[in-house]
Task: structure prediction
Amino acid sequence: MFKKILIANRGEIACRVIKTARKMGIKTVAVYSEADKDALHVEMADEAVFIGPPPTAQSYLVIDRILQACKDTGAEAVHPGYGFLSERPAFCEALEKEGIVFIGPKVKAIDAMGDKITSKKLAKEAGVSTVPGYTEVIKDTKEAVEIASGIGYPVMIKASAGGGGKGMRIAWNDAECADGFERATNEARSSFGDDRVFIEKYIEEPRHIEIQVLGDSHGNIVYLGERECSLQRRHQKVIEEAPSPFLDEATRKAMGEQAVALSRAVDYQSAGTVEFIVDAKRNFYFLEMNTRLQVEHPVTEYVTGLDLVEQMIRVAAGEKLSFTQEDVKLKGWAIEARVYAEDPFRNFLPSIGRLVKYMPPKESDVVRVDTGIYEGSEVSMYYDPMIAKLITYGSTRDRAIAHMRDALNEFFIRGVQHNISFLAALMVHTRFMTGRISTNMIAEEYPQGFHASDVPHDDPALLISVAAFIHRRYMDRAAQTSGQLLGHERKVGNDWVVLMGGQQHPVHVDPADGGYDVVYMGETYQVRSDWQFGYPLFKGTLNGTEICIQVERRDMIYRLFHWGSQADMMVLSPRIADLQALMPVKAPPDLSKFLLSPMPGLLTKVAVVVGQEVKAGEELAVIEAMKMENVLRAEQDAKVAKVMAAPGDSLAVDQAIIEFE
Ligand code: ADP
Result:
């Protein structure tokens, strides 16, 4: 076995690999860029080597730097994680030349699977079912239209060198096909420097289901069940689970055997993933093979009981697999949710900044948190804005979902925006709960984007009784402070009014053993908790059932966060509540007349001039943030009255860019 390995990656995956290496008694070397000098993976590793400035092209992607780090530290092998250099044949070859082991498959497999056309042909030859289509490079638009009508609409136009959902277009007719062909070709050329494009049938109501395979250098290859990754937003996975709620035993076996056949065809030696697209009738078709560890591998680890990183390291060191296909048993259910630094209520705009507060849920047998950050660290603009992967396990799917809901309640993040509300909303969505998902589900269910109204709280009495508890505990504590004049002590009343969503909810609060009994609308709610002021999490019981609610106090307002839903509440004495009802309501400023910057960033373009009439959907301005161009479009038809910022300006959130008439 290796004595020392280097991890050519950062963030959660670097930390995850280090954990396993440490468990196996292997020393670890981290590499880090300027932006990562205080990162968790650097702290966790036994040694760390600085490899350059923040941009990945000058650090994590520079093969020579990684090689030098291996030589300087004496690392015998390199784990590439995912992304970065994990699927670069040139990297494997460079390592091999120096006698350093690449913890992954052989170059031949990476090469063959790196190209969509080549891999599709190989799959066909290996007897794997592929999406009906044309696997030759298409010359021009005319040929594209002919081929598409031959296949039958709808079709998918894809870049052969594509990845990350780029260079893909759906076409439903000849005109869309001609247009899609040109766009896909251009996108492929600019993104991948390779404009080869091909066409296949578009599978309707598609589900993305992938098979985990594992091979050793002795010719053994097994499949470790499937992962369903159909919940995607813009072709990016959001929630993954194992097993799939859709597959039956026969389909699972057929997919598994085909995945193994394909792996065998390229002499696959390591952990790898064969992705399939599955239609509503459970017909499955090969999409591509990822020749590396996948982000969502933890769900497979939960249901198989295996440590995939350990298996990769053992296989790379020449060990034989210690089990056979018959030994592989799937047990229980696991779900992964990707927690991102992005604002779901603002069209999922990436958010950067310092994690002022970061309290992940407690890990246990059924809760796992894979993360590369800690409280006080920075979500930087240079890398993927993932905060953590939250994985839960249960004996059944429903239990795994219940654990996920609880864990999301406990996940406390402040300083950057995050998508926990969105993840919580998906967990209770009927389509998700009943397993009727497809890769289009998110787009279909949230056509106008995601809004606070998509996460209503289904039990307002819970929030009201907890707010009453919190306020009452606060008042009782204030009443106990010393220095009060004898005979003039502060008395805390039992009747209160909770103000929520503009509505008054009268409650009666009686102290009880370990908490308070709150009477609301004739019902008694027994709230018990040792919660004290300043605790961000209110943990306790409500009528005997455990609850966990995030609590923040902002002046007189208690902000509660539970099940993805946020509520601002005030608790007032009945007298004050009466007066409060008489207060004039301050009308919020009319912001519909302004285009506001949804994020901090650099204004790179203003596409309109004063006096111009714009139509809904028309481009207004472009902001660059986190290396991404974000196009701001008109929400409705309007006329530009004023342009209030110029290209080159650094914008703050909510800064006005354009005023309309
Ligand atoms: P990439 O390498 O860019 O991720 P993939 O080929 O893996 O591209 O496809 C990404 C996603 O696009 C899939 O998960 C699926 O949702 C969708 N997709 C790809 N091919 C098809 C198809 N033929 N029909 C329907 N959806 C498809």
The mean pLDDT is 94.
